[in-house]
Specification:
Largest sheet: 12 strands, antiparallel
Shape: globular
Oligomer: single chain
Structural class: mainly beta
Number of helices: 5
Number of strands: 19
Strand order of the largest sheet: 7-6-5-4-3-14-13-12-11-10-9-8
Mean pLDDT: 81
Amino acid sequence: MIISISNRFVYVDIKIMRPFIFIFAAAVFVVHAGAEEFAFKHKTGDKFKTISTSREGVFMNGELLYDTQILNRMSSEVLEVRNGVAVHKALFQLAEEKNLENGEGKSFQWTEEYNSVFGRDAKGNITIADRYTMPTVRNVPIFPNRSLNPGDSWEAEGYEAHDLGPALGLNKLQRIPFKARYTFLGERDWRGKPRKAVSISYSLDTSDGSFLEDDPLGISKGSGGTPLRVRGESSQVMYWDSALGQPVGAEETFRLEFKMPDGTVYEFKGNAESEIIESPEMDKTAVADDILRDLVDEGVEGADVKVVDEGVKINLEDIMFEPDSAVLVRGEEKKLEKLGDILRKYPNRDILVGGHAARAGGTEASRQQLSQERAAVIAAYLVEHGVRGAERIIARGYGSQNPVAGNDTEAGRRKNRRVEIIILEN
């Protein structure tokens, strides 16, 4: 059952994906006689990534169903700046923290992925085609055309864009407008360093019928399985680095409530924290050569390295699991230990662990599940042994959809049963 919309999905195992509250890019912090003037300043070729972790409780009619943790990862690049508007190309990846089937650890496991292209001007106004569902929260922040002193406040219109297509077959995003309230707080501590801080808050309430711009099916009146009413609040503090001229992070508390036609009320309450990191260009060829050399020196067999669009991919077809399970064969941890030593040489790069299966026996659903579980085991090992923090690794299963050899021989199937680790450029 889909209750919610866009990147906020609610199924029978109810969960909600918090969106990024703001989209970021290089910005300039201009000083005028003691006051501050905020304005985005984009440059072609700028690359950024954002890691946002959301911890939330899920309630039904006031009773807690469960707690969960969601990871939102966005990588973006400024393609060009045209008439003062920067064109961003972005990839949004959503993952949920899950316990491993064997009970030995946790990992963030991939759930959804979205591509997006949008423009943003110097003051924060976004232009974006309706075919893009992300970002959900738009026109936040918006900066005024004046200098600001600590304590100054302002308001600006924004909106959340939601996709009802999965539930109703509609092809147009629906918007929920809001008025955001801003206050320049002056200087605050962010992870041990002084930063300029801006508070941002807004409320959602569709009781006035604003749930849909166009309502040909009477959805805002509670037809079908869509919400009768949506309410919520978001409150955050965004931190800016004056020297770098860009935002560096944010902290948010939120509450969202969905009232269904049968009277059931689902509520999501929690907090989120985001960190924005500038991604320097990666010499992928040099990194691939160094890794291949290290793999040979460490005696890691059955591995190869290649440059891909996302970064540098390490293919491990010789990591052995028990048949039809995600339990590592005894002794395989030594290979992962050597691999971990190599990955530690690139601490500023995030990692995607992909599991692949051979098309032999079972169903595609079972192969998908097995490949996901095996990727999660590798990711959890790397986290537990300090190679990366949990928020820096995503595990994803691909089933048997991406074979690199035929499945009609054991040699081919062995190549297809593999784990790939991508050191991400951005």
